[in-house]
Amino acid sequence: MAIQTLDKEVVIIGSGPAGLTAAIYSARANLKPLLIDAPVDAHKQTAPGGQLMITTDVENYPGFSEGIQGPDLMIEFRKQAERFGTEFLEEWITEVDLSERPFILRTDNYIVNAQTLIIATGASAKWLGIPGEAKVPNGFGGNGVSACATCDGPLPAFRNKTLVVVGGGDTAMEEATFLTRYAAKVYVVHRRDKLRASKIMQDKALHNEKIEFIWDTGVEEIVGQDDCGVTGVRLRNLKTNKERVLPCEGVFIAIGHKPNTDLFRGQLDMDEVGYLKTSGHSTATNIPGVFACGDVQDSVYRQAVTAAGTGCMSALDAERFLDHLPVAMPSGEEVTMEGEHITQDHRVIIEPDGSMIPNQPDKVLAKEK
Ligand code: NDP
Fold first, then answer.
1. Could you report the per-residue pLDDT of 54-96, keeping only the tens digit for each?
2. Element (H, E) at 35
3. What is the model's pLDDT at position 11?
4. Separation of 172 CA from ligand 1 center, angstroms?
5. Top mutation candidate among 216, 299, 302, 303 for ligand 1, by most atoms within 8 Å of CB
6. Which residues does the annotation mark as catalytic?
7. From ligand 1's centre to the CA of 195, what distance in Å?
8. Is 85's C-beta closer than 6 angstroms to any atom of ligand 1?
9. Peptide bond preceding 102 in cis form (omega within 30 of 0)
10. Where are the extended beta strands (E) located within 139-263?
11. In a 10 Å sphere around its CB, with 0-12 CB exposed, 13-18 middle and 19+ buried, how is residue 263 labelled?
């Protein structure tokens, strides 16, 4: 097939809650967005719809008083985006060029020129890669093994049970502390004798009487039975090499997430883990006209509802940018499509040629009115 060229005002990459919410808003604003998402690939473990496609009960997404299955929720998101005219393209993006507008996105079959780009490529939980961890039927994933305590901790399967959290960072401390609301006991298994988590998060976990730490220890295997799920973890002390099985009924893997940002490396500002940096006041990245929403720019909240919220923000930011209005940048300045910069204190406009003019209402016009 010959390479086709598409010219679009708004292009969204990613079809989780953030990307689809951005699509709903920009489609309703008549911007005819194109949403590009990864095709289904069993080997790369990708499927349109994002992380909720591998979740079962979603009990905390507002509007569903009885809860909803993750995949069913994403079908509703998608239908809503389709209803307002979002176009979908299932292609791997191989290259992006953000050096000038229109931004250029290349796939095997298309060149897409985008006036604005909304990045909603999400993040993926890291896994240990040990026996028993894979999703049912190959392991106990979804049957006692999870990578999200906020999503799954309150489910009946984990209430009043003995649980294991693996990891020593902020996520592990937060998840362990959260789980003590429901669990009878929480073990934190960490591979070293020092935590990576911030002091405040460490202190909360270390002083929680339901939490017990198991130091210098790796999890070698998650054991259980198909009918009742997880029954324990096989641990190995990394200093003594001694192995033992610790009985438990649930395992939460909290060893970090990997934001899906490799495509943008060297072009967009990222933190040391790879999360895209956005303005505190908008979803703008360091390149005017490129916005980021959802888990790709959020290492803290990581909820479907916060992703959807920032997706809505991205669409409104893109709309504003295309209307030639100023958008807040991570630097604190505001920037327009024409390249005008409004200083952080809002007093001066710096024109693209470097000239400066006061950012004050025109007094003559104000008088005439
Ligand atoms: P981190 O990378 O900070 O921590 C990951 C932890 O998992 C480390 O303790 C690491 O061990 C351990 N680990 C990694 N790989 C393995 C492995 N293969 N086997 C065993 N253990 C492993 O990730 P987090 O998700 O905890 O945090 C990411 C970022 O998000 C941080 O900047 C954090 O501050 C932030 N965050 C903030 C929160 C908040 O403020 N509320 C909440 C959650 C996250 P080791 O220490 O030995 O490397």
1. 667 788 899 999 999 888 999 999 999 999 999 999 999 999 9
2. strand 34-37
3. 98
4. 7
5. 299
6. 148, 151-152
7. 9
8. no
9. yes
10. 145-146, 162-166, 185-189, 211-214, 217-225, 229-237, 243-247, 250-253, 257-259
11. middle
Tens of pLDDT along 100-121? 999 999 999 999 999 999 999 9
Inter-residue contact 176 to 213 (CB < 8 Å): no
My answer on whether omega of the bond before 137 falls inside 30° of 0, hence cis, is yes
Which helix (H) or strand (E) segment is 112 a member of? strand 110-119
Say which residue the tokens 């220890």 belong to: 217
The C-alpha torsion from 299 through 305 and 309 to 312, rounded to 10°, is: 120
Tokens of 292: 């980021």
pLDDT above 90 as % of the chain = 77
Distances in whole angstroms, Cα of residue 332 to Cα of each of 279, 342, 346: 7, 9, 10
- For residue 218, give both structure tokens: 């790796």
**Residue 216 region by backbone torsions, left for phi larger than 0, else alpha for psi between -120 and 50, else beta:** left
Would the pLDDT of 36 be above 80? yes
Contact in structure between 8 and 107 (CB atoms under 8 Å): no
Cβ of 259 less than 6 Å from ligand 1: no
pLDDT digits (tens, 9 = 90+) for 181-218: 999 999 999 999 999 998 988 999 999 999 999 999 99
DSSP state of 328: E
311 backbone dihedrals φ, ψ, rounded to 5°: -65, -45
The per-residue pLDDT for 365 is 45
Which has more pLDDT, 364 or 40? 40
Ligand 1 pocket, residue 169 CB under 6 Å: yes
Q: Please say whether the beta carbons of 185 and 156 come within 8 A.
A: no
- d(CA 318, CA 115) in angstroms, rounded, equals 9
**pLDDT exceeds cutoff 60 at 42:** no
Q: Residue of the nearest CA to atom 24 in ligand 1?
A: 256
Separation of alpha carbons 176 and 153, rounded Å: 10
